[in-house]
Amino acid sequence: MPCQELQHAEAIRRSVYTLDKKLPVDQEKITAMIGHTVLHAPSVFNCQSTRVIVLFGEEHEKLWELAKEALTSIVACDQFGQKRQQVDKFKKAAATVLFFEDKSAIRGLQTNFPAYADLFPTWSAQTNAMVQYAIWVKLASAGIGANLQHYNPMIDEYVAAEWSIPDSWQLYAQMVFGGIAGPADDKELDPLEHRFKVFGSNLKVSETV
């Protein structure tokens, strides 16, 4: 992908919440895109600790029904209606990506490199985040809308039981995606000069993008 196309995909990647089941590309292509990212994404010490599951169709809908079931045990009755509407909105999408980290891989690093033991959990989270972002950008480049949710750990036990998740896999996030049925909300960008610095160059920051 030329740099300009990658930058365009990064720019159009947004949190899109009004989604439907009309995907602009087929499931085979989407699966290949996601699998390619999982295979090639960087990871701490090349431990390749990120695990990904994609749920399409009825399996996707089942996830969000399980989320509603989990909500009933922790959300006050007067707030449940609003939460239910939110979850039903996710259910209207086409699919969900589940992101996990395999803690056995991280424990192995902690054993083999004890000097960094306290840092590996943070680096593991960063590894997972890179996979999330890369997949999100790829989906955006294909005209697919997505948003990222964190219903873990509330749904962890439900997910583990339903899809036979190994005990060592820890759920980190859920990416809901589908056809774009409504635009993303407006997004204000803070000036780049406040967030980005360059040293050793005669260019101004505004000239670098």
TrEMBL record:
SUPFAM superfamilies: FMN-dependent nitroreductase-like. One of its GO terms (biological process) is cellular response to oxidative stress. It comes from the Bacteria. Gene3D superfamilies: NADH Oxidase (3.40.109.10). Residues 13-178 form the Nitroreductase domain. It is found in: Cytoplasm. GO terms for cellular component: cytoplasm. Keywords: Cytoplasm, Oxidoreductase. InterPro entries: Frm2/Hbn1, Nitroreductase, Nitroreductase-like. One of its GO terms (molecular function) is oxidoreductase activity. This is Nitroreductase family protein. It comes from Neisseria zalophi.
